[in-house]
Amino acid sequence: MKTTKTLVFAVFLMCSLHAIAQEKIANPNFDDSLAQKYEADDYGMKSYFLVILKTGENKSQNQELLAKSMRGHLDNIKRLVENGKLVVAGPLGTNQKNYRGIFIFQGVESQEKLEAILATDQAIKNNFLAYEVYPWYGSAALPAYLPVSDKIWKKKP
User: Fold this and answer.
1) Which residues form the signal peptide (predicted)?
2) For 1-12, what is the mean pLDDT?
3) Do 7 and 84 share a domain, yes or no?
4) DSSP-derived secondary structure for the chain
5) Residue 143, in any domain of the structure
C-alpha cells in the first residue's frame, strides 16, 4: 500500500513539474520588436472590432446615388486602411441573412468611436448598408498582410 501511495505521489509530482515546465517554455521564434510593432499580448493576440455589413433599408432605385455611395464606400475603405484603422475588408457571398461584407478594425478605443468612424462611410450614411459590431480577439499579426495585399491586385476596385 505504501509503495502504491509513493508511486501515485511520484507520478503526480512529475505531472506537476511537467506542467510548470510547459508554462515556462518560450517561443524560440519570438521576435520582441514584431510583438511590440503589432501590439501583441503574451499570446500574440490583441483586440479588434469585427463589423458585419448588412443590406440597409434604403431601397432607392436612384442608380446615381447608389453608384456615388458605393464609390464613397470604397474610397473610405482605402482611407481607413491608410490611417491604420481598418485591417480587413471584403464582400461576402450571397447568403440568407443579407450579410454583405466584413470589416476588422484595430486601434479603436470604444464602440462609440467605431460608430463615428462607420458614419463616414457614404453607403452607411445613405443607408444602403447597415452593420453589426462585435468585439473580436485575434492574431496581432493580422495587419502584416496589408503591405503584400497592395502588391497583388491588377485592377483597382
Assistant:
1) 1-21
2) 55
3) no
4) -HHHHHHHHHHHHHHHHHHHHHHHPPPTT--HHHHHHTT--TTSEEEEEEEEEEE-S-----HHHHHHHHHHHHHHHHHHHHTT-EEEEEE----TT-EEEEEEE-S---HHHHHHHHTT-HHHHTTSEEEEEEEEEEETTGGGGHHHHTTS-SS--
5) yes
Query: 49-70 pLDDT, tens per residue?
Result: 999 999 999 999 999 999 999 9
User: Do 76 and 138 fall into the same domain?
Assistant: yes
Q: Read off the pLDDT band of 146 (50, 70, 90).
A: confident
Q: How far apart are CA 82 and CA 45, in angstroms?
A: 22
pLDDT in tens, 91-121: 999 999 999 999 999 999 999 999 999 999 9
- pTM across the whole model: 0.80
In the chain, the number of structural domains is: 2
Residue 47 has pLDDT above 70, yes or no: yes
**Contact by Cβ (8 Å): 99, 92:** yes
With a CB cutoff of 8 Å and minimum separation 6, the contacts of 74 are 157
Shared-domain flag, residues 83 and 20: no
Are 142 and 65 part of one and the same domain? yes
Instruction: Tell which residue, 63, 70, 126, has the closest CA to residue 101.
Output: 70
